[in-house]
């Protein structure tokens, strides 16, 4: 466990180095080298774990070690290529820390940073696809079928919709494969649907997902939402007639 004073030193030192680095060039400096070495050790530890679930748990355990460094880079960085920051972004997506991942994604996309070569995808695609997959996983997780459980799901879905909308805005102009963008719209549709009272927005995103990829798996969801909206419209019309 690092002391507050140590974390402060790491953040300030990282900010100073990142603020004077050349945009687009590899990041350098004492704190970068130390955290790159720590990242190498962390990756070696992860390679020895076979279980995906246990890998995620280990990443969650390891990530705080990099928080102060990342905070410093985001605070003052000018866009130097930083494999530590980009790896942390992806690991945050892996563990479900969507807000933390998006904070880095906004910085990375603004400066055009690339993910390390081992990830084999560009930054916009990683942000869109992994965030969408994690959001859908969370939305499909079992929950208590009680008023409290349903309220918790709606609140979680509202937060996911916010993160997904931010990701969609950040990657809107990026060139990426249609199936990847379709996943993002599918996740947005599912999140809006789970919030309750946002069927029209959900339907719009699911239709967009289907237009981008006819195998995205939302046709039945679209049909169900169309019926719900039609029935809701008929009910509204009947109520209006009764009150006239």
SSE layout and pairings?
Blueprint: H1 4-20, H2 30-47, H3 52-62, H4 67-76, H5 83-95, H6 98-111, H7 123-139, H8 147-170, H9 178-195, H10 199-212, H11 219-243
General description of the model:
The chain has 244 residues and is mainly alpha-helical. It has helices at 4-20, 30-47, 52-62, 67-76, 83-95, 98-111, 123-139, 147-170, 178-195, 199-212, 219-243. Helices cover 74% and strands 0% of the residues. It has 11 helices and no strands. Residues 235-242 have low confidence and may be disordered. The protein folds into 2 domains: 1-114, no CATH class; 121-234, Serine Threonine Protein Phosphatase 5, Tetratricopeptide repeat (Alpha Horseshoe), CATH 1.25.40. Helix 7 (123-139) packs antiparallel against helix 8 (147-170). This is Phage small terminase subunit.
Q: Keywords for this structure?
A:
single chain, 244 residues, mainly alpha, Serine Threonine Protein Phosphatase 5, Tetratricopeptide repeat, 2 domains, 11 helices, elongated, disordered C terminus
Offer a concise description of the structure.
InterPro entries: Phage_P2_GpM (IPR010270). With 244 residues, the protein is mostly helical.
Average pLDDT score: 92
Query: Total number of helical segments?
Result: 11
Helical residue percent band = over 70%
* Secondary-structure element string: HHHHHHHHHHH
Are there runs of 5+ residues with pLDDT below 50, and where?
235-242
Major sheet description:
none
GO molecular function: DNA binding; endonuclease activity
Region (Disordered): 1-28
Biased composition (Basic residues): 1-10
InterPro entries: Phage_P2_GpM
